[in-house]
Amino acid sequence: MPRSPGEAESAPRPPESQTMSGPPAGIEEMHATRHVRLEDLNAYYGSNHAVKDVNLSFEPGRVTAIIGPSGCGKSTMVRCVNRMHEEIPGARSDGHVLLDDVDLHASNVDVVSVRRLVGMVFQKPNPFPTMSISDNVASGLRFTGTPRGEISDRVESALEGAGLWNEVKDRLSSPGMGLSGGQQQRLCIARALAVEPDVLLMDEPCSALDPVATLKIEELIGQLKEKVTIAIVTHNMQQAGRVADTTAFMLDGELIEVGPTDKMFTTPDDDRTEQYVTGKFG
Ligand SMILES: Nc1ncnc2c1ncn2[C@@H]1O[C@H](COP(=O)(O)OP(=O)(O)OP(=O)(O)O)[C@@H](O)[C@H]1O
Ligand SMILES: [Mg+2]
C-alpha cells in the first residue's frame, strides 16, 4: 500500500535486524536479544472475547511458559504475536505487540516480515508432506535472498541447531514425513530456525510426543534460549518447571499472574494460580 510522505516520517518502520537486512548467516551466529511486549492486548472471535487486556513480556535469554486451563486463550494470545490470529475469519485483535520498540501490529509492518522474525512451532508436527527433509528446512530460505550455493550450509546449520543433523544427514532427500514424531517436531523447529527468527513461539510442542522425544525437545529449548527469545504454551506443569525461567498463568482470557517459575509453583501471589498449579482445577 502506498504511504503518504507524512506517514512515512512518523509511522514505525519494520524491524531492522540481521534477519531483515540480509540472508541468514548460520544458527551459530544467533543471539537472543529481542524483547517482546504485549500491551493491552485483546483478541476476539466475533463476540467471544478470548484474550482480555493482556500485558506481558517475553525476555531474551529466558524461556516464558504460558499455562492455564483449556480454552483460556493461550493459543489465541501467541497467535496474535506473529499475526496468525488475523487470518481466522471473524477474528480481530487490538492493543500492541512490540518487538523491542516496533509495533508488529502497525498497519505498515509487513506480515511476511513479522512471520520471519517470529517463528512458530505447533502442537502436532506439520512437515510439508510432499517435501524432503532438506526441502522442508530450506522452504523459508528462498524468501531471504540466501544464495543458492549457501542453502545446503544453512540447512545443515538449522538441523544442527535443532539437534537433528546426526540422525538425518544420510537421508536428507527422504520425505520429512518418514521421520518419527519427535524427529518431525525437531524438523519443524529446524524449519523455523533456518530463517533465523528473533522469537520462537511454541504451542504445546511436545503434547503429541513420547517422554524421550519430549526430553529431547526440552533440552533443545534450553540451548535455543540463548539464540532466540522463546515463549512456550504447555499443559504440563512439570515441563514448565523444567524449561521455563518465567511462567505466566492465564484464566478465562486474562493474565492472572506472571513471575519466576519457581515462585509461581511454590508461593504464587494469586489464589487462583495456587489452585491451578496444585491441580485443584483445570
Ligand atoms: N479458530 C477459532 N474460531 C473461533 N473461536 C476460537 C478459535 N480458536 C479458539 N477459539 C475460542 O477462543 C477461546 C480461547 O481458545 P484457545 O484455543 O486460545 O485456548 P487455549 O488456552 O489455547 O486452549 P487449549 O489448552 O485447549 O489449547 C475459546 O473460547 C475458544 O473456543
Ligand atoms: Mg491451545
Q: What's the rounded overall pLDDT mean? A: 91
H-E order: HHEEEHEEHEHHHHEHEHEEHH
Strand content: 15-25%
How many β strands by DSSP? 10
Indicate the topology.
Elements: H1 5-10, H2 18-21, E1 36-45, E2 48-58, E3 63-67, H3 74-81, E4 91-99, E5 102-103, H4 111-117, E6 118-121, H5 133-138, H6 151-161, H7 165-168, H8 181-194, E7 199-203, H9 211-224, E8 229-233, H10 237-243, E9 246-251, E10 254-260, H11 261-266, H12 271-277
Bound molecules: adenosine-5'-triphosphate and magnesium ion (MG).
Question: Care to describe what's here?
Answer:
The protein has 282 residues and is of the alpha/beta class. The chain has a domain of 176 residues: P-loop containing nucleotide triphosphate hydrolases (Rossmann fold), CATH 3.40.50.300. Helices cover 33% and strands 23% of the residues. Strand 9 and strand 10 form a beta hairpin. The protein is globular, with a radius of gyration of 19 Å. The protein starts with a helix and ends in a 5-residue tail after the last helix. The N terminus is likely disordered. The protein binds adenosine-5'-triphosphate and magnesium ion (MG). Magnesium ion binds next to helix 3.
